[in-house]
Amino acid sequence: MVEYFIEWAPNPDPLYHDPSQSPQEMTIDPPLLDTPISVNGYMISLEHLVGGRAKKSFRRAAEENGINAVLDYPGPIIIDSGGFQGTGDPPEKVLELQSSFSPDIVIQKDTVGDAAQTISDAERTYELAGQYDFEVWYVVQGSSVEEYLDCATQLKEIGCEKFCLGNLVGRSFLRKTDEVSEIVEAVAEVVDGGNLHLLGVSNPGILQRISEKIDSFDSSSAIRNATMLREVYEWKNSGIEYHEKCDSRPQEFYCSCPVCDKFDVFTNEFELEKYTGARRRVRQLRAIHNAWVIDQLAKSVS
Ligand SMILES: [Zn+2]
After folding, report:
1. Would you say 231 and 223 are in contact if contact means Cβ atoms under 8 Å apart?
2. Which of 3, 31, 57, 183 has its CA 20 to 30 A from that of 22?
3. What confidence category does residue 277 fall into, taking pLDDT thresholds of 50, 70 and 90?
4. Distance from the alpha carbon of residue 125 to the mean position of ligand 1, in angstroms
């Protein structure tokens, strides 16, 4: 079974497993529809939490009570090292910041495309990981297949057991399915049964091809596309169809998600009044619909 972690930005938005409720008990006006979807887990950016994009009151509550309690979500929550990649910050600082939110899983501080620096940070992280009670996932970095392979081998030698594959977002965006598949397959062989998470890639064509090699993936693209491109995904047995910037529901469109039961995800929010929350409500409901479609994909390839 491939798990799908929803990237969630604590601005705060309502949650996908309980969209009508704000994690911070802040009033949502107008209120949202109750359209919960099943969620395997959330991935939250460390930079979001500490860099000022999350509300201060949210950060404080998460530090005091733990991120699971604030989100009222008992499943796994990953805090990534977003924003700290490639900075001079030592891994101990990143671990300490991550630990202040009591997550279930953290992603080591890594450097995109730089295997040598990532390995050196992994060594330090591994030394310190025993002090914490969360899991640490180590990042396999590289730019060529050889570099990825070498990085994975060295991480295994350090003792790492749970892995993420980084730096594949660009290739995924360009739909370089063959290259991504080659890297995933090569690394999967090295980690040999160790947990493998695909970072930032949710391209359906790629997922269908390599789903047997990975344990989980994440992506904000379903949500970003819903909110920024007005793109609606449609789940068909064979895969996903994309509807971009449609102003009305295509006649043959069909969806059995909890949102579509109550709401037309093709509503054009720009025809609604500004500053009333009405536009935000449309985007959120469309994002929940798209996330549900990706979850169907994850279930189908499992
Ligand atoms: Zn739907």
Report:
1. no
2. 3
3. confident
4. 41
